[in-house]
Amino acid sequence: MRFEGDRVRGTVTFDERHGGAPGFVHGGALAAVMDDLLGNVLIIIDRPGVTATMTVDYRGPALLGRQLRLEAWCEEIDGRKLHMRGEIHDGDTLIAEGRAIFIHVDVSHWEASGHPLPASWQDWGATANA
Ligand SMILES: CCCCC/C=C\C/C=C\C/C=C\C/C=C\CCCC(=O)SCCNC(=O)CCNC(=O)[C@H](O)C(C)(C)COP(=O)(O)OP(=O)(O)OC[C@H]1O[C@@H](n2cnc3c(N)ncnc32)[C@H](O)[C@@H]1OP(=O)(O)O
Q1: EC number(s) on record (predicted)?
Q2: Which of 81, 103, 107, 123 to mutate to test the pocket of ligand 1 (most atoms within 8 A of CB)?
Q3: Span 2-129 CATH architecture
Q4: What is the ipTM of this complex?
């Protein structure tokens, strides 16, 4: 995935590890990629956040071995609620649409695990809190 202006774009190719019906991508694998895709928008809007709710509309068949195209953006920021949108395409065919509400949290949210946080997270959200 990469950042282009206010959008996250990227590609993904699923293989047999991500299969559901023979030759098709498992819907849960698509949902995991969608969550990750939408999560990357947090970097663009400079807000640490977590997924509170996400829906995935499965619009077309996702086949293993195809390079699928990813795109996501932030539709609205409403207080701590961050409304994210994303799409997965195979060529011109829409495969999945994602909608999620992420909630803006303080980086200390992740301290509960006891694992050290990446040093780069220290400034994450600085512009949002300014
Ligand atoms: C996400 C980053 C982690 C990974 C980072 C990795 C790299 C870092 C770099 C960048 C990120 C890049 C990629 C991201 C990768 C992956 C993304 C995966 C993301 C996840 O995999 S993340 C794990 C799953 N996720 C959780 O583990 C959340 C568990 N949960 C909670 O921790 C709490 O539940 C919390 C904090 C959500 C809220 O708790 P709270 O006490 O702080 O706030 P409160 O409940 O008061 O709600 C405040 C306002 O949000 C509204 N609100 C709340 N929940 C709502 C819902 N479900 N639907 C609609 N609105 C909702 C309320 O209605 C209120 O709205 P209002 O202010 O208008 O009244």
Answers
A1: 3.1.2.2
A2: 103
A3: Roll (3.10)
A4: 0.92
